[in-house]
Queue: 4 jobs
Job 1
Amino acid sequence: MNTLLSYSLAVSILLLILAPVTLLVINRNSFHRFNRWLLLSTITLCLLLPIGLMCIKNFGATVAPELQITLNEVPVFDNFTNITQSEISGINVLTIIGYIYLIGIAVITIYVITAFLHVRGLIGKCRKEKHENYTLCIHNDIRIAPFSFMGQIVIAEADYQKDSKTILLHESSHITKKHWLDLMYIGVVTVILWYNPMIWLLRDKLRQIHEYEADKSVIDNGVNPLDYQKLLITTAINRKLIMLTNSFASNDKNFSKRIRMIGNADLNSKRRALALLLIPASIIAVAAVNNNLCSEMLSAISRTQLKPIEMPSANADAGAAEERSLSKSVEGTDIVAESSKDEGSSIVLPSPLVDPKPLAEHVAYSISYSELGEVSPNKKVLVDLSIDEDGKISSISTRPENQTLNVALNDAFQRVEFDAYYSEGKPIKIMITLPIVKGEK
């Protein structure tokens, strides 16, 4: 699921750069059909570019070289007993972000499903009349403004008896122009990008453009602009807007601008050339997503597995401490008791290049003071871990050579694996150097 979060973040970065340019172009002209397709094309471009970039990377990818890195020192003291295995697992910040993202998707999805069921329930109670291009649904709730939903026009009985011709002309225009498909499309995108304010702005702007297009169709069919403005104003008073639909008149924040737009002639068509600004904006957006820092961040998020968040309990801490004390001999050089845990299970730690803390804590938890052998206090031993592409440890060695510590490290990492580390979309082998410092007794 974090792959979806990584993808949505890439789309969001693109959208944050391209959407302001698109809104600038839309606000500078009144060619509504052009504005509609420009807005939808911008969203589609943002959705497709990350996929295209990934395909290009995979097509031209070569085997990445082994990556070497040195981590911070890990102190080992004679009385170091404050770290337990339950603390090593910790709570990964990326895991928390992943859960928040999933909760947001769930909330928005439930909201959309509830709105859909509300519309279907209202339509189910209506009296229906079949027309050539739509089904007319008539109800008795005057509080609901007339609206269209897919191939249906929903209208209150009072509105139908009074001004049905103009209202039906407006709503049938929504159906003919397939505006409901736009709403479904941007609704799905909104679920994926719910945390991005730009997608909400674009959604509102798209609904506004829909109304401009339908209003223009009404005026083009000979309705007097002044009479139409009066009808919109009187119909909008104390009316409810039904989500997921194109509503005839709703007294929202864009309504006054819509009234002023009616009857206005198209502005200079040359202003549509402002859309060419999207070309350099797209180049900047692709460069932003494709730079090393952003690419590695998105790769780290996509690799993070969502696991149950378990808070350590007092009993678990006590059990872990007891297990640690049983697993060491008095001298600390030989293992005299086997772990009570299942030998077949594995401990999976984050890649040290993503989060080095769990590795450091595991070493501090697993290595006793005496297992450092003849190392003098405040002196360090370098531990070299070779981690294969699949996250498994292929070799462990020490510098200078320390046989006692080698045995302890091999035992400590016998059941440990790491999340694979990716470079340019491919897992790579990494070499970790971890300095261990012998503290004072």
Job 2
Amino acid sequence: MPEKVGLKKDKNGFLRHSNGVMWWQSGAVQAASKYFLLCAFVSFFGWLFETVSFAILWIKDDRGFLTLPFCFLYGSSVLAVYFLLGTPLGGKGGKVFACRSGKKSRIKIFFTALLRLVFYFVAVAALATLFELVTGIVFVRWLDIPLWSYGNFDHTYLDIVCLDFSLLWGALITIGMGTLWPFFVWLEKKIPPKARVVSAIALAVLLSCDFIFNCVYFARTGFHFQLFY
């Protein structure tokens, strides 16, 4: 009967699996660290995109709930898109349309690719809108933290989601998953295995402290803490 693999301390006091592999080298730990860091990359880029956009188009504003420069609505949405749909041309939708393509011709390849992109765009827009709606209900409606409002726009629901922006998110995520996402994956692969895990744990601790601080601050003052207005 094969020996059950588990964590044990070696002679130096370090945790290892019974097969001799260090705990941070396990596939599950590496995968969790990888996708957490990818989520953080996208969340930082989302925060940067919103901050710069608001500064140029409207007013200078501290975006997001956290004090650190991350908007995890972006990271979680994109990660869900990746797991459910993949990338625009290499995802699960591509496999579906490839099965129906039959004999290939240039016209058929073109319209198949176009149909695949349209399907991806619609699915991504719907998924991003769902994430925005759920997050808005929790923070804006239940907790009364006005992180955003579409009150000045048409075609809105509860001033939390807006058709115009849903279409914008669909377009931006579709483009981003075909361009920026491969770059983020390439960048994450450059991180050594041990540094990947250490970075993920350190960032998770910082983000947890940041989240707790903002929750306590809001509970005591009734306002969302902002670094600048």
Job 3
Amino acid sequence: MTGEQVYYDAYMNELNVLKSRDKALEALRKERIKDHEWVIIDHIAEMSNGLVPLEEEALQSLPVRLKICQRNLQKQQDRQEA
């Protein structure tokens, strides 16, 4: 994890613009998928949807967490030099 904006932007673009997963599900709907297979696919899609808020929170909090880690690392280095 780098905290670079480009990765956050790419995630949000996939989630809100590209929607590859949604397109894949639509393509599957045109196939002869059995009912019991749809139960599994729908369950997986629901789990994936449930991860979105957690992923967004993690990506949004990353810059702050990186600064804290950098500060702690600097403190450790300062102690070692003293």
Job 4
Amino acid sequence: MGRKAKKRLDVFLENDDLLHEKFPDGRMNVSQYVEKYNSDEGFTPVVNDEFVYTDAAPGTPEKLRVLAYRVRRGLPIFHPLDRQKGGKEEFWFCLKRFYRL
């Protein structure tokens, strides 16, 4: 992921007001849809050129940033080409970080 994309993702994570961002094409993210219709049934994520895969390992902070970005932009959460497994080293790194070992 490039620096520009990472910086953009960090901004989305830091600013919850962006969950209420108005899109020029009229689309909504799931949060806006639930506010309007009181249910997520019927919500269909938008697939466009913003919906790209990530090579970030599952459970890493980078992968979580990507997932949060996708939710806020009204995109599908998982991409079929997203990395499915992390290496053993990445697993232990994430585990140690989670439990603050």
